[in-house]
């Protein structure tokens, strides 16, 4: 598995300045390649990320460490163009990230880019940990048949949530996994742009990630929105490091 940093925060809408500084901290002591970023130019940056993702994912599995969540649009685009099989997207996040269609796409609406450009079908997108939804998003999710599992469901119905994930895995050939650190509870991930209470705990998240990794179908994975400037006692970076460790040990 290749490891790449994607140190762009150009899609953060001034909500998470500093998240571009996370990759070298999270990947400290590991070998990794840096995805070239074009300063102050999100369109060209997206093109560079997309080109890199396409080049790498055509050959092997990869873990991308960001950066803000807008990078996932370019990464999923690269992923979708390097497979002929049935594709799924699993996202861990507090937010559904489909408020509207900004141009260029931001970290609040990258999912609309994925759906509108048919990179992955709405019914093959599963969002887990969701707990802050705009009414516009509720409408969009319903219209596009996106599957949503709330953080409350993960806590109250873990068996059903696992079954739902396993069903999606079984129905698809290749899976992209996007992990927004704000899917976690602020007590363990205080270093990010939007803190939403009652998020996922590590022990609730790891079995789900484990199922994805063990399936052998998770070809592209990203970890985004960690902000060292907002971190408390390095907790968020440490959590991110444990996630990276888990991904790599299952490779
Ligand atoms: Mn989020």
From TrEMBL:
Keyword Manganese: yes
Spans annotated as Disordered: 1-20
GO BP field: putrescine biosynthetic process from arginine, via agmatine
Cofactor mode of binding and number, as noted: Binds 2 manganese ions per subunit.
Pfam families: Arginase
Positions bound to Mn(2+): 69, 93, 95, 97, 180, 182
Database matches in SUPFAM superfamilies: Arginase/deacetylase
GO molecular function: agmatinase activity; metal ion binding
Superkingdom, taxonomy of origin: Archaea
Cofactor(s) annotated in UniProt: Mn(2+)
PROSITE patterns cross-referenced by the UniProt entry: ARGINASE_1, ARGINASE_2
Keywords from the named record: Hydrolase, Manganese, Metal-binding
InterPro entries: Ureohydrolase, Ureohydrolase_dom_sf, Ureohydrolase_Mn_BS
Keyword Ribosomal protein annotated: no
Chain segments annotated as coiled-coil in the UniProt record: none
Gene3D superfamilies attached to this UniProt entry: Ureohydrolase domain
Family recorded in the similarity comment: Belongs to the arginase family. Agmatinase subfamily.
Name of the protein in its database record: Arginase family protein
Organism: Candidatus Iainarchaeum sp
């Amino acid at each position: 598995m290749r490891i790449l940093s994607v140190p762009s925060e150009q899609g953060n809408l001034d909500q998470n300045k500093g998240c571009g500084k996370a990759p070298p901290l999270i990947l400290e002591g590991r070998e990794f390649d840096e995805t070239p970023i074009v300063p102050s130019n999100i369109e060209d940056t997206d093109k560079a990320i997309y080109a890199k993702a396409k080049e790498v994912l055509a050959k092997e599995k990869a873990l991308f460490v960001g950066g803000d969540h807008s990078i996932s649009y370019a990464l999923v685009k690269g992923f979708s163009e390097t497979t002929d099989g049935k594709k799924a997207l699993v996202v861990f996040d507090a937010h559904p990230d489909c408020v509207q269609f900004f141009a260029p796409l931001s970290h609040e609406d990258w999912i609309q880019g994925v759906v509108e450009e048919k990179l992955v079908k709405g019914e093959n997108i599963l969002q887990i940990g969701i707990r802050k939804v705009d009414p516009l998003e509720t409408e969009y999710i319903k219209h596009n048949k996106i599957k949503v599992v709330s953080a409350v469901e993960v806590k109250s119905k873990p068996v059903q949530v696992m079954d739902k994930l396993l069903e999606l895995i079984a129905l698809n050939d290749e899976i992209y996994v996007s992990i927004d650190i704000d899917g976690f509870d602020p007590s363990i991930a205080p270093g990010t742009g939007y803190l939403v209470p009652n998020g996922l705990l590590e022990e609730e998240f790891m079995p789900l990630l484990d199922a994805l990794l063990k399936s052998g179908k998770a070809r592209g994975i990203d970890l985004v929105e960690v902000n060292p400037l907002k971190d408390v006692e390095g907790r968020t970076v440490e959590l991110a490091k444990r996630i990276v460790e888990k991904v790599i040990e299952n490779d």
